[in-house]
């Protein structure tokens, strides 16, 4: 895309618009995934800045490799990259912390020990992801009371490896479909047998965390910068999403993407017997749609092109919940993706869109058979093709990808293991610029993916493994446990005006 300047400013613009639309639609496919007695929500005395304390018992039988160290109070510090955890030398069972064992200190402080070294009188551990069945041998965990997501804790980990990943190759784009289709046909979904009803509960966030940057507000920690991206995520009462600013090579962009939520709440079910998963389910209530707003300017044309970059939002939003025999968190992880091509300069581009839907979102797994909740009553409330405006003598294309992954389990950020459900929203926008055709097109696709265990983008895994080489620790794997393949729930395309020259 960086060599398209030779097309000229007015020469057959509709052909270039089609090509840009193909690239945007192709990226929708390629970038869909770069690739969790009941008391409800609680933040009682057992919950600290490092999560709720973990103790043996509670009706749960743990695997023999799990080491308990007296709870969250045993955690002395956590590194800025979220991988190194320092455990007090006076903690119970500290002598059992060896490579290959599983630390279980708190709802956040849990993971496979990849490296160990002394830090004064304390032990410093490098933790990696672990499958849920590696922690639990036997146990049934289910919510029968409301778990509200109206108030959360936000942990910022701006130094985590693999936050920014690069582009898909032009060869991959060339091999993608050329019909402007934003993805494969929607799959058939059915309502799972397990259904949860949840409404509103409440909890208070804990005190500030000096190691990980814990937000005392229900919105977000302070903004962070990853590469050329300035990120301000938010969650959860009105929705989960991120405000994004981008500035590099003459391209400036501001975007906001939101999974709209109204009184969000979650229910879940999990049964493990003899170290094997039997049943699992997770359900999100209160989802109301998806919104996007984009403003961009370019002073360099193709020189500022962005080719399928993805940013792992370095903030873990979590709600600690207790009363299940095991400390858990309900968490949201987010990914933002961007592709942009401006063929002329100067250029100015704006667009907004909103897609409404209702119903519960999630999945159920019973005796190996999975079923998925489908969004209901989908409507295009604001069509980006009608709001789009490009001030330029040449065509332009912008593709925005956004993924929100909800999970219930234990662990931290992308290393959380448990039952999880992810939604990806991809919006491709193209406009022809100052031409007689003045064609505008939008392509929208909504994907889902779900599983039990953990799932980490391969690009993140590669960089984390490079980090682990310093500690001579074993490499981590991208997935553990059960996970589905991504599938398309909804797709829509629109061309304005609906004429032959634009179609």
User: How many distinct helices?
Assistant: 5
User: What value does the Rg take, in angstroms?
Assistant: 23 Å
Broad structural category: mainly beta
What is the averaged pLDDT score?
78
What share of residues are in beta strands?
over 45%
Low-confidence stretches: 1-46, 167-220
Q: What form results from the Cα inertia axes? A: globular
Distance between the termini: 22 Å
Report the count of strand segments. Answer: 31
Helix content: under 10%
Describe the largest sheet. 12 strands, antiparallel
What's this model, at a glance?
Helix content is 9%, strand content 48%. The chain is mostly beta strands.
Q: Would you kindly provide a written description of the structure presented here, covering whatever features stand out?
A:
The structure is a single chain. This protein has 503 residues and is mostly beta strands. Helices cover 9% and strands 48% of the residues. It contains five helices and 31 strands. The protein has helices at residues 13-30, 132-135, 170-174, 384-387, 458-469; strands at residues 47-48, 51-52, 61-62, 66-68, 75-78, 84-87, 102-104, 110-119, 122-128, 136-142, 153-156, 164-165, 214-215, 224-226, 229-234, 239-248, 251-273, 276-298, 306-312, 315-321, 328-342, 347-358, 361-366, 369-373, 376-382, 389-391, 396-410, 417-431, 440-455, 479-483, 487-496. Strands 3, 10, 14, 15, 16, 17, 18, 22, 23, 24, 25 and 26 form a twelve-stranded antiparallel beta sheet that branches. The radius of gyration is 23 Å and the shape is globular. The relative contact order is 0.20.
């Amino acid at each position: 895309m960086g060599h398209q300047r030779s097309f000229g400013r007015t020469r057959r613009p509709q052909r270039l618009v089609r090509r840009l639309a193909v690239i945007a639609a192709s990226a929708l496919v390629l970038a869909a995934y770069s690739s969790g007695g009941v008391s409800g929500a609680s933040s009682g005395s057992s919950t600290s800045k490092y999560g709720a304390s973990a103790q043996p018992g509670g009706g749960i039988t743990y695997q023999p490799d799990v080491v308990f160290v007296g709870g969250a109070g045993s955690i002395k510090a956590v590194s800025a990259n979220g991988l190194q955890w320092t455990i007090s030398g006076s903690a119970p069972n500290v002598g059992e912390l060896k490579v290959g064992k599983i630390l279980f200190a708190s709802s956040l402080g849990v993971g496979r020990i990849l490296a160990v070294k002394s830090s004064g009188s304390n032990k410093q551990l490098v933790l990696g992801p672990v499958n849920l069945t590696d922690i639990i041998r036997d146990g049934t965990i289910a919510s029968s009371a409301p778990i509200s997501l109206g108030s959360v804790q936000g942990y910022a980990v701006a130094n985590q490896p693999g936050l920014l990943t690069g582009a898909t190759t032009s060869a991959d784009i060339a091999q993608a479909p050329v019909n402007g289709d934003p993805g494969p046909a929607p799959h058939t979904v059915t309502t799972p047998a397990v259904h949860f009803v949840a409404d509103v509960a409440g909890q208070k966030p804990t005190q500030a965390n000096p190691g990980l940057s814990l937000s005392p507000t229900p919105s977000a920690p302070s903004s962070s910068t990853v590469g050329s991206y300035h990120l301000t995520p938010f969650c959860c009462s009105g929705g989960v999403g991120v405000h994004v600013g981008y500035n590099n090579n003459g391209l400036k962009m501001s975007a906001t993407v939101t999974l709209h939520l109204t009184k969000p709440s979650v229910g879940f079910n999990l049964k493990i017997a003899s170290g094997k998963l039997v049943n699992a389910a997770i359900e999100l209530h209160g989802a109301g749609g998806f919104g996007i707003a984009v403003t961009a300017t370019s002073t360099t044309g193709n020189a500022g092109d962005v080719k399928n970059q993805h940013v792992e939002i370095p903030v873990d939003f979590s709600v600690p919940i207790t009363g299940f025999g095991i400390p858990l968190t309900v968490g949201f992880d987010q990914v933002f993706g961007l592709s942009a091509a401006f063929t002329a300069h100067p250029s100015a581009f704006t667009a907004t869109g909103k897609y409404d839907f209702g119903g519960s979102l999630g999945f159920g797994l019973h005796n190996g058979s999975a079923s998925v909740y489908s969004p209901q009553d989908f409507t295009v409330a604001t069509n980006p093709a009608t709001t789009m405006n490009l001030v330029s003598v040449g065509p332009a294309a912008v593709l925005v990808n956004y993924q929100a992954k909800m999970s219930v389990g234990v662990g931290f950020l992308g290393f959380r293991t448990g039952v999880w459900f992810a939604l990806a929203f991809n919006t491709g926008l193209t406009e022809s610029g100052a031409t007689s055709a003045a064609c505008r097109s939008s392509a929208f696709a909504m994907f889902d993916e779900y599983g039990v265990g953990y799932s980490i983008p391969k690009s993140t895994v590669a960089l984390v493994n490079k980090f682990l080489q310093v500690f001579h620790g074993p490499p981590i794997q991208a997935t553990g446990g059960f996970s589905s393949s991504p599938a398309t729930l909804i797709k829509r395309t629109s061309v304005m005006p609906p004429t032959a020259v634009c179609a």
